[in-house]
């Protein structure tokens, strides 16, 4: 607390990211990073940008990367917005598209950054409870709102909402923007991007942090009709003209150009996810059906905090949220085969 702070700062409740421990040789299954590493072509592209051109500002519009993403997803470059990680894209979305004096709706069990952005931009947040089985029910999104956002697949549940249900939410809210945060969509869900042409109120947000193994590069993007993208550009150009540096622009472009690497990593994660799910079920866990690179699981006889602490004692870190409804769950990122084996062995001994 300080007299020098702007009044708003006193009220902020910042997001708390998963721990990035400094110790080596931990089995780190707590922040949904991809265990397989970025494509060698990404590293090569970044290396080739390490030269005198770093004295020059990068392309403020990220033209070349936007064209690559547009071609990849079958939209036009005017429909693509880039940000420094999708977290920055989300922040601009809240400011540019959700300020209508009405509460923003999002599932009560979902990404905990959403209420933080509401606090930052003084938007009322209205968490909408997911069902007993942790599903999003489109019927619950028929109420006055200033915008709607949900991850699909949802985090931390891993559950995927079928696209016809996403459409039901879009159709029930033609006057408000519906944001589908697809951070995990590449692990088996269907993207809503093909719906963008039909729904002027749809905005889809994706990241290179998860399926493309580039959490450290900080690249996220949004796809929508050009009018919504223009709103984001206005905010971005009033905030930071150069959200992506030269290395990030080059690395991200190369990531989209190595489709084979992307597919291999993603399939390995999906394969391991199914294996971890069966193993956990064999140990008596209830595992929610996941289309993400993590599973959300609880044991009928053990508390989540006890299990998380026990694993930690063995050098295995998973995410535990000490929050109502999900206190008994662990969110476990899918790691390499060796890491997943360590997890399963660890749980067997607890
Ligand atoms: C990881 C994650 C993000 C943020 O991704 P970055 O691009 O790394 O900022 C956004 N939304 C959800 C639901 C996530 O899990």
What this model shows, in words?
This protein is α/β, with parallel strands linked by helices. It is built from eleven helices and twelve strands. The protein has helices spanning 7-11, 40-48, 63-73, 85-97, 113-120, 163-172, 226-236, 246-257, 259-282, 304-313, 337-349, and strands at 27-29, 80-83, 104-107, 125-128, 147-151, 178-181, 202-207, 220-224, 286-287, 294-298, 316-318, 329-333. The strands form three sheets. The protein has a seven-stranded mixed sheet with strand order 2-8-7-6-5-3-4, sandwiched between helices. It has a three-stranded antiparallel sheet with strand order 9-10-12. Helix 5 (113-120) links the parallel strand 3 and strand 4. The chain is globular. The protein starts with 6 loop residues before the first helix and ends with a helix. The model has no long low-confidence stretch (mean pLDDT 97). Pyridoxal-5'-phosphate binds at residues 32, 85-87, 111, 151, 155, 181, 183, 207, 209, 215, 220.
């Amino acid at each position: 607390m300080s007299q020098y702070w702007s009044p708003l700062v006193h009220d902020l409740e910042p997001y708390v990211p998963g721990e990035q421990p400094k110790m080596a040789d931990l089995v780190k299954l707590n922040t949904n990073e991809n265990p397989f590493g970025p494509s060698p072509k990404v590293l090569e592209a970044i290396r080739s940008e390490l030269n005198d051109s770093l004295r020059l500002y990068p392309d403020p519009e990220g033209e070349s990367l936007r064209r690559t993403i547009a071609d990849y997803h079958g939209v036009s470059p005017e429909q693509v917005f880039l940000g420094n990680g999708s977290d920055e894209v989300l922040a601009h979305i809240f400011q540019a598209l959700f300020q209508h004096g009405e509460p923003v709706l999002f599932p009560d069990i979902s990404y905990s950054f959403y209420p933080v952005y509401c606090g930052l931009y003084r938007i009322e947040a209205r968490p909408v409870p997911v069902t007993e089985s942790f599903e999003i029910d489109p019927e619950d999104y028929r109420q006055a709102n200033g915008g709607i956002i949900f991850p699909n697949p949802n985090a931390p549940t891993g559950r995927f909402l079928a696209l016809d249900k996403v459409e039901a939410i879009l159709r029930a809210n033609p006057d408000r923007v519906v944001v589908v945060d697809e951070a995990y969509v590449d692990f088996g869900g269907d993207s809503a991007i093909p719906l963008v042409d039909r729904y002027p109120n749809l905005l889809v947000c994706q990241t290179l942090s998860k399926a493309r193994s580039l959490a450290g590069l900080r690249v996220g993007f949004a796809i929508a009709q050009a009018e919504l993208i223009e709103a984001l550009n206005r905010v971005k150009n009033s905030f930071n003209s150069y959200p992506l540096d030269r290395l990030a622009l080059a690395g991200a472009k190369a990531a989209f150009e190595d489709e084979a690497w992307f597919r291999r990593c993603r399939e390995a994660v999906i394969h391991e996810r199914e294996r971890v799910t069966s193993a956990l079920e064999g140990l008596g866990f209830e595992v929610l059906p996941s289309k993400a690179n993590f599973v959300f699981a609880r044991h009928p006889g053990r508390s989540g905090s006890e299990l998380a602490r026990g694993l930690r004692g063995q050098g295995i870190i998973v995410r535990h949220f000490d929050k109502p409804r999900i206190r008994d769950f662990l969110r476990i990122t899918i790691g390499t085969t060796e890491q997943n084996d360590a997890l399963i062995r660890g749980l067997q001994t607890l």
